[in-house]
Every structure is written in C-alpha cells, then in structure tokens.
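Batch job 17 of 40 flagged for manual review because the log was empty.
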Amino acid sequence: MIKRIDLAKEAAKIAGDIIKSSHPQKGSTAKEGRLNFVTAADLACEKTIIELIEKNYPQDTILSEETHATLANPLSVPHLWVIDPIDGTNNFRRQRDYSAVSIGYVEKGEMVAGVIYNPFRDELFTAEKRQGAFLNDKSIHVANETDLKKTEIATDNWYDPKGTRQNLELILKLEEIPFMFMKGSGVLALAEIACGRTDLYIHNFLKPWDNAAGFLLVREAGGVVKDLKGNDVSFMSPQAVAGNTTLVEQFIREVR
C-alpha cells in the first residue's frame, strides 16, 4: 500500500498538471464574498485527488474546500485528509501563476503529513511529523532574522473587506512597519515562511484547507504557528502568526 505522504505527493503533482493544462476562466463561478470563485480546474483537481484517496484509503475521511467543506468535528477524526485543490484561485483566473495545491493528512487533530505544490514553478513542499520539511527533496528552514523591524511580512486579503482591514490594522500596530506582501495565496505564503523566503505571516481568517499542510510545514522547518494570544493552534484555527519563535513572540507582544 502506498504511504499517505507519497499518495499526497502523487495527487498534488497530477492536480498540478490539470491546473497547467486548464483554461483559467473555464467554468468560473462566483461564490460567497468578494472576488471568491470556483473554476472548472478547482473541481477537476478536487475530483482527481479525492478519487485517488478513496481508491487507496477508502476508510479515510475527507474535508475539502469545494465539495466536502463541512464536517461535524474534524479534530476527532482518526484519519482525515484536508484538501485545497487550488489555493489562489483568483490568481489562477488572472494568470498570475501564484497558486498551489494543498493536501494535509491529520490524525485526531494532529497534523501528520502535508504537501504543497506550486505547478508553475514545479516546487513540491513536503513535511511529515518529526521528519523535517523539504522543497523538492532538499531540507528547508524558516528564516533566521530576529529583529522585527528588519523583517518582510506577508498577509492576505479576505473575501470580506472588513477582514482585510483587520489584517492590515494588526500590522499597522507595529512601531515600524516592515516590508509587506499580499500575494493572494495563504498556502504558498506558509510555504515561503517554511523555506525562509518571507519572515512572518499573519492572518485572522484562515480556513482548515489553508492550514493543514502549511502549519505542519512551518513547524517541521523549525518555526512556530501561534494565535494572537501566543497559544499553539490546530489546523482549524482561523488565526495564525507564523515564523521563527523570536519573531512570532515579538510580533504578538507588540500588537497586544
């Protein structure tokens, strides 16, 4: 039987091929909120990933953004897959080439394996519990910067403009505003924290499919993910401050 991490890698790669071969506007339908869409490619990727999981692990449960988005108590499920078939759908629609497939595997609330794949750069981020984090099979680590004033920070829009305002107002509480990014994919933002391309990621309105692979990746790359009270968070948390321990603690202290 194929290991779950290897299944996630295979599924993410196949979904990535679907993304690259799909017309970005085909089947585009607006969902609730501002600039929130689902495309034919989202649905095709999700269908492919779910079929692969069900073929190999039919007893497992699936939580996925587009068609399997509700579950009574995800933290209690013995074997749970958490899927975002395309994170950054709006980027995909506008052909900005900054989108990713995210597949996380969770056992009773504990993140065990995660894969994030950016097909446009052929970058496969992987992590397993207590096994480290990798980009295309090379070990990665969060950035070492310890001075919050010298950091590069990422956040993102939210589908409700009030949510975007809250994210920005949180950063504006800092004494000196760091260099900021808002690229449109929380999944890739977490991957870039894990490999040290960005120092800190902050968001108040994340979904489980944004987090399940990304939180594990950050932690296995030597980082932490906390809420604004400084507590460790599960993949169900809408709130995250992700980066190395020193920067996360500094940020939380300054914005309280």
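Reviewer: the log was empty due to a logging misconfiguration, but the result itself is present. The chain has two domains: 4-139, 148-255. Unflagging and moving on to job 18.
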